Amino acid sequence: GQQVMQIPQYQHVQEGEDFTTYCNSSTTLSNIQWYKQRPGGHPVFLIQLVKSGEVKKQKRLTFQFGEAKKNSSLHITATQTTDVGTYFCAGAGTASKLTFGTGTRLQVTL
Amino acid sequence: GAVVSQHPSRVICKSGTSVKIECRSLDFQATTMFWYRQFPKKSLMLMATSNEGSKATYEQGVEKDKFLINHASLTLSTLTVTSAHPEDSSFYICSAARASGLTAYNEQFFGPGTRLTVL
Asked: Cys staple from B25: which of A48, B19, B71, B96, with CB 3.0 to 4.6 Å?
């Protein structure tokens, strides 16, 4: 079945440093979504990428979808303590079914 | 808009009992709802896809007789964990996809989750 891996598994940065998480799917995706889950919370939708090579920005967050539609990345510029949480990519295959990536847990300290 | 609620938020039960978890879309209609399971510090594992008015589609390895899903209306899906055992202890999360534009934009709205502890 479809597998979606993310690296790194965990990253600890100091506030102000940049952060990037990479997402790789074993199969081509129709689209990819990114979610953030705060400790003790539930996943919250961040963005969806549909087109090959697409790049989208949300303030300090930059999302990219690979040309082959099998990989994606999320880059956070100048992290803040509010960015703490686990970031999941989720690949969409058929019938809106999402396969969640393994997640990257981000810790930000002052 | 697009709020999904889950009830209960937390439940502790004895081994052998059944537990029902409700998932409601509060301000939109959801033809499709999804049930996930999440172990501590792990990813979300899709258990089943619940379609209003039809039988749920279970993922490989998920026992349909163990995890009963009912999607009786466009705003409510229930998951019943039957004869619960300690290994069923987990965080169960539902999500709902909007009824319109399902294939064009399939954002899922997640409920707050239910933490099940089986003693």
From this structure: B96
